[in-house]
Amino acid sequence: MIRLSLADPAFAARFDALVGARRESADDVSRDVAAILARVRDEGDAALIDLTGRFDRHDLDAGGWRIDPADCRAALDGLDRELRRALELAHARITAYHEKQRPADRDEVDAMGVRIGARWRPVDAAGLYVPGGRAAYPSSLLMNAVPARVAGVGRLAMVTPTPDGVVNPLVLAAAALVGIEEIWRVGGAQGVAALAYGTGRIAPVDVIVGPGNAWVAEAKRQLYGVVGIDMVAGPSEILVVADSGNDPDWIAADLLSQAEHDPTSQSILITDDAGFADRVAAAVDAQIPLLATAATARESWDRNGAIIVVPDLMAAVPLIDRLAAEHLELAVADPEPLFAAVRHAGSIFLGRHTPEAIGDYLGGPNHVLPTGRRARFASGLSVLDFMKRTSFLGCSPGALAALGPAAVALADAEGLPAHGRSVALRLDR
Amino acid sequence: MIRLSLADPAFAARFDALVGARRESADDVSRDVAAILARVRDEGDAALIDLTGRFDRHDLDAGGWRIDPADCRAALDGLDRELRRALELAHARITAYHEKQRPADRDEVDAMGVRIGARWRPVDAAGLYVPGGRAAYPSSLLMNAVPARVAGVGRLAMVTPTPDGVVNPLVLAAAALVGIEEIWRVGGAQGVAALAYGTGRIAPVDVIVGPGNAWVAEAKRQLYGVVGIDMVAGPSEILVVADSGNDPDWIAADLLSQAEHDPTSQSILITDDAGFADRVAAAVDAQIPLLATAATARESWDRNGAIIVVPDLMAAVPLIDRLAAEHLELAVADPEPLFAAVRHAGSIFLGRHTPEAIGDYLGGPNHVLPTGRRARFASGLSVLDFMKRTSFLGCSPGALAALGPAAVALADAEGLPAHGRSVALRLDR
């Protein structure tokens, strides 16, 4: 963990270093991923059998290509009652929030008599990547699948690795809750490739979403344009802006809720009280040993954690915008002035009683959010990622007569005579 | 040009071949582009000087780094009066259309007492690539720059190659009309890299849009995630659905308006009348020699053109959706049934009097549209490409008490104790 103070003459350089630090894996997997994508494109199912046997030690032909939806329903029925209710509450709240994201169509006739508008339609098919092992979270499945369902996507196909054939019952239960019936036991770059290109067994999809390791992320990056993808995801991060009126233990827990994800995660506190900063730092150290995730949280906090002291919290606004964090907590008595001033953040958590974890699970907004300062230009996952907009125009003869000469003039100026001709011929009648 | 008939027993296979044909350049420029991006990232302005001297034969230090906004205003003032009016009409109509794309914010309190919503903000800075030479179109500059302006983007930086120092006065005039003041004389992958990474002279931007050659497209693809980009653009295409009530000359002109762009462009006619198909094919052959762009149009039509005869036009709907064309003309007496049924197209042109060229210039909707069947999942350029959405949540102590236990249950199930702790600590009070 590093400590910075805005009062320090070296602050600008140290803050630049913090902003510019690369936490993303430097593994260069792009060549290996390209080779896997080409194999799946060319060899289809045979490549999936070979790669899944090799990487996941699962024999697709012998052990099964798909997970039976009945197994998902059984997993849902087998859940502890309190957990099932929690999952259902999450599902209901996420659905309700995303339903209000459905875009409106436009269809008007303008002053020149031109019918003009745009309409939205869902994609035909979406692919959902769900990681195996430790990072297989039911909440993540809900966050990725519900927007597709709300968009009205007809086909939702899920791929997930099942190392040694083992499935995660919580993930199956979440799949049952969303009603996903098509689940393939393939993962990694090969799973993404199967969704994008299609194979003999797996029909191709139009959009692929969902978290994964460096190979999965690189596969999606390389397939961007062949299909739509959600975004390039990097390590997770939280920025907590807190005044001294908070319980240091609460703020420490918030910082650790990000640190426990991964050693590359980042937790940053900005406060206007150096004494409060000390108390939070002490609380972090006190809480880490209590966590089952202590080793990860320790490594993340030591490597990437930061505490920044500013003279007053409004002075933090330019720093907040530079960091453009995935998650921004405004744990202050009145968050309104900061909330109004901040421009760049993936999602904002307002006030002392809104820990970021509420948003991870069941606040309602999506927890798939831009990382690595990408909140400067990117948004969280939404219903729009599963839809596309078609614009349209309709000219009456009169409207064409009004617009046509200008179009011909521009076509001539651009040296595109057939463009002009397609308009001019219609003006002669 | 190939001719297909839905009645042909071999139709399915021949149509599959048409849909699957790759028209995009097979040039593998990715390694060269990666090297250029790395050089600009590491060496900044020095790399720009070297590469611009080499590729554009323009000495940045001696001949100027920037185009003076006064030169742009002079170019606008020097325009032919009719052309200037046409450009102004285009600017006004494109602006009016995109102003209605501004998204609405949400800020509500739900039934559980949670404040919940989302708000949109423009990105800080957008970069606009404008090609040099033949493909430098003022209409394209308007289509790329106006949505950024409407979004409220504070800084708009343009890069454009000026081979041998030569500028295109029409493009300068369009830049003046949109009010672009920051124009750099750099192009190619190095121009895109300068916008993405920044150099000593050029400040980095958040989003890069605009058309370019294979190097520019590959540079944008590789920088996706470092910045936002508009989309992966391939060769242009038009699909015209026409009944025999049309003048064959009009439809031929529409097909040629796409074919004249580039030998890789594609023009397809679907009609329900084989005799009409013959007449359009004859009209295409008759019109090509009249065009200054005859050689390009001929090559495109011969290589990539297609005419498909169907028994009735509604039978064309699945074909239209498979092709998912950038531009779809419904040149029929009543376009409504087809318009209602079609799902995938970048932009639709309704009726006999709406040639696609109207949309290229001044219909209002954007002419930057998904190509290569990407209308299955992608949309045209819009104001949203220059904005990003931040979600937010605010819990009162009561709302947290209502939601908290479910969040704790889910965090426990996912094995993330600090997540649960950040909620549970606040429930104890």
What does the model show?
- The structure is a homodimer of 429-residue chains.
- The mean pLDDT of chain A is 95.
- Chain A has helices at 11-20, 30-43, 45-56, 60-63, 69-77, 81-99, 138-151, 169-178, 188-197, 214-223, 248-259, 274-287, 294-304, 317-323, 336-341, 356-361, 397-413, 417-427; strands at residues 2-5, 106-109, 114-122, 125-129, 155-159, 182-184, 207-209, 228-229, 237-242, 266-271, 306-309, 327-331, 347-350, 387-395.
- Chain A folds into three domains: 30-104 and 123-229, Nitrogenase molybdenum iron protein domain (Rossmann fold, 3-Layer(aba) Sandwich); 234-376, Nitrogenase molybdenum iron protein domain (Rossmann fold, 3-Layer(aba) Sandwich); 396-427, no CATH class.
- In chain A, 46% of the residues lie in helices and 16% in strands.
- Chain A starts with a strand and ends with a helix.
- With 429 residues, chain A is of the alpha/beta class.
- The first copy, chain A, is globular, with a radius of gyration of 25 Å.
- The longest helix of chain A has 19 residues, at 81-99.
- In chain A, strands 1-11-10-9-12-13 form a six-stranded parallel β-sheet, sandwiched between helices. A five-stranded parallel β-sheet of chain A has the order 6-5-4-7-8, with helices on both faces.
- Chain A has 18 helices and 14 strands.
- At the A-B interface, helix 6, strand 3, helix 11, strand 13 and helix 16 of A face helix 6, strand 3, helix 11, strand 13 and helix 16 of B.
- Strand 14 (387-395) of chain A pairs parallel with strand 13 (347-350) of chain B.
